[in-house]
């Protein structure tokens, strides 16, 4: 593992540990560097601020592993993986959601859900001719729908089982994307 990656992971672990005790907006770079015994200069070689580090955590802990779920057969498993990650990192996610860092969490979630749904739409339309603008609009629409459900789950403190949330999402969108793409297939 590269030294850069080791340092980034150490900084990320320190931030996650601190978030168990402090809201994200109260955590300072010095607290993170003191916790993992690196200099402020080292921190700034990797991240511009605490929120940049927070974004790195979200980006690197789940999004890299989602490509296997970007198809019709496995999209629900991808959504469930995001829900489970959130539950497994409840303190981190709720702390972020309830703070000024909320935009980082929402941006991360949008990117993840959009990535999965775009892959699903590409998978559905691989033998169709559907306008790329419609595919983009559909991915955006369904991403925002998933975001609404997800944010509602966060607001309720992640108390509901992730499988129940994933089943609700499946019930609402199953077949709808396929139907939409078939309706506008120009083949």
UniProtKB/TrEMBL annotation:
Pfam families with a match to the protein in the record: TetR_C_8
Q: Which Gene3D superfamilies match?
A: Tetracycline Repressor, domain 2
Protein name (Swiss-Prot/TrEMBL)? HTH-type dhaKLM operon transcriptional activator DhaS
Q: Which organism is it from?
A: Clostridium oryzae
Q: What range(s) does the Transcriptional regulator TetR C-terminal Firmicutes type domain occupy?
A: 74-175
Q: Which InterPro entries match?
A: Homeodomain-like_sf, HTH-type_Tx_Regulator, TetR_C_Firmicutes
């Amino acid at each position: 593992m590269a030294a850069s990656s080791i340092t980034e992971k150490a900084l990320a672990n320190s931030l996650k540990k601190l978030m168990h005790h402090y809201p994200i907006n109260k955590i300072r770079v010095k607290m993170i560097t003191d916790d993992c015994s690196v200099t402020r200069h080292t921190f700034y070689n990797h991240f511009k601020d605490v929120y940049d580090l927070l974004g790195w955590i979200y980006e690197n802990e789940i999004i890299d592993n989602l490509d296997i779920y970007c198809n019709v057969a496995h999209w629900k498993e991808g959504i469930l993986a995001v829900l489970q990650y959130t539950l497994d990192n409840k303190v981190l996610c709720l702390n972020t959601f309830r703070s000024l860092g909320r935009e980082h969490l929402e941006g991360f979630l949008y990117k993840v859900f959009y990535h999965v749904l775009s892959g699903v739409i590409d998978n559905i339309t691989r033998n169709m001719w559907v306008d790329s603008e419609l595919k983009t609009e559909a991915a955006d629409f369904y991403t925002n729908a998933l975001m609404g459900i997800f944010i509602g789950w966060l607001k309720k403190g992640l108390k509901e089982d992730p499988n129940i949330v994933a089943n609700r999402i499946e019930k609402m969108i199953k077949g709808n994307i396929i139907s939409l793409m078939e309706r506008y297939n120009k083949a």
